[in-house]
Every structure is written in C-alpha cells, then in structure tokens.
Amino acid sequence: MIIAVDGPAASGKGTIAKALGRHYGLPVLDTGLLYRAVGLSVLKAGGDPDHEEDALAACGFDDAILADPALRSEAVGSLASRVSVHQSVRDALIQRQRDFATQPGGAILDGRDIGTVIAPDANAKIFVTASVKVRAERRFQDALNHGGHPDMDSLIADIQARDTRDMSRDHAPLKQAEGADLLDTSDLTIDAAVQRAIALVDAQLEGRP
C-alpha cells in the first residue's frame, strides 16, 4: 500500500504523513529532506543552488546528512526549493524515492510531486494545503519555540516565493494530483486534520477495486 501526501510548505503534510504512518503501520519518507540535503550540500561546498551543475554534484550526499538538524532551518528549506527546479536533480533523486515507495508492505511519502510523478499509481493520495497567513503563523511559532526571532513579513514573503517557484517550475510542478483528495488544514487542529486525513485515505482504499 502506497499513500502519497503532497502539499506546499507548512501545510501540515509532514505531520499528517507521520500520523498516517503510525495509524497504518507503514514507514514514512519526508522526500523534502532529500532536496534539503542537496541544498545544504551545495552550501557546504560553496556552490550556487541556482547553478544546475553545482546542484547535481551535491546529489551524491552521504545519508548521514539526513540527520543534520540544520536541514530543518528556513534557510535550507529555501535552498531546497531552489535546487528542486533543476530536472537533473529531480531525476537523480527519483529512484531513491521510488525504491522507498515500493518496499515490501508499502510506504507513505510526503512531498510535492509524489502523487503526480513519484507514485502516480498510489493507493491513496491527499493534497494538503492551508492559507499563506496560517502557514506563516505556523513557521513563526515554530521559530519562537526554537529560540528564534522571526519576522512575519519575511516569512510570508518566503512562503509566497517558494509557492511560486514550486508551482511554476517546468519539471514536476506542485499541483493536486489526479484522484487526490484536497485537505485544507487552515481551520483545523492537528488532531482534526489527522482524523480527516485517515477518513479520506480509508474512503479511497475502500473505493478501489
């Protein structure tokens, strides 16, 4: 069983994917971490994330970097969005994601092109979204919780810029996959969003031949 969870930054897709993993007893892959690892690797190498050759060279990163706390920073998130526009980078990471998806027993993957490119034949697909204002507020609170000093205007601008890059890129743009159910978490608590996601997945699984 493969479950695809797609959506923009701070929509809640990661939290929902992890909850679905616990509910269905399936391993979960945050595919965004792979692109963050590439972005961070480019930065450490002194390269340019907007330069395709630099970004592609960083795709051979050591898996140990996936445990680096720096991957969760806003700055690296922005780098991930920039390197992900390169088709060669996406091609380099596709097989790693598909291998995870097709492991015995199944898996849950969250990202931006899971239901459209990585696993278009997934058993269930959800597209998680939320308003820019709500997503910025979530980032703001998260930064405060980690001792940061966030600026709301900067967070809103960053989210809007990332949305534009992700939705307008030529290769695998962010969009709701065919057959995916839309889940807007703007006005939902975490528990309510998770329960809604489980209900949507169950309905899709029951509706399959």
From TrEMBL:
Enzyme class: transferase
Keyword Transferase among record annotations: yes
Domain Cytidylate kinase, first and last residues per copy: 3-201
Keyword Ribonucleoprotein applies: no
Highest taxon of the lineage: Bacteria
EC number per UniProt: 2.7.4.25
Protein name: Cytidylate kinase
UniProt lineage: Bacteria, Pseudomonadati, Pseudomonadota, Alphaproteobacteria, Sphingomonadales
